[in-house]
Write a structure and sequence with these properties.
- This protein is an alpha+beta fold.
- The protein has a single domain, classed as Beta Barrel (Lipocalin), CATH 2.40.128.
- About 15% of the residues lie in helices and about 55% in strands.
- The chain has an eight-stranded antiparallel beta barrel.
- Strand 1 and strand 2 form a beta hairpin.
- The chain starts with a helix and ends with a strand.
- The N terminus is likely disordered.
């Protein structure tokens, strides 16, 4: 019974509307970095695919795991790692997704466009 309560509480705390909106395949088109907002067009082949609760990423490296959205952040839980990554969502619409990446290289935003297939 306590496991069921935990699942219900976890689901009620996530943003199910955003989780439905993010469903599908997205391809990265540009990255904006630095305080001067310098933009770089990204090559084809950088993909994010969401099918709740699973995601997969394809690019120079590949990654798969589970995800959820809460408090305006995309929470990624890769299968191969024990730690969860929290990525701020700057914009999420039916056709556009912008994520903010913060790492040792600084802060960058990556724009994804929904694939139409």
């Amino acid at each position: 019974m306590s496991v069921l309560v935990l699942i219900v509480v976890t689901l009620s705390c996530t943003d199910s509307q955003s989780e439905k909106l993010i469903e599908g395949q997205w391809h990265a088109v540009k990255i904006t970095e630095g305080s001067d907002n310098k933009e770089h067009i990204l090559p084809d082949g950088i993909l994010l695919n969401f099918h709740y609760p699973k995601y997969n990423f394809e690019g120079e490296q590949e990654e798969a795991g589970n995800y959820y959205i809460k408090d305006g952040q995309l929470h990624l839980i890769p299968y191969e790692q024990e730690s969860e990554r929290n990525i701020p969502i700057l914009k999420l619409t039916t056709d556009s997704l912008i994520l903010q990446l913060v790492d040792s290289l600084g802060t960058r935003s990556v724009q994804f466009i929904r694939n139409k297939n």
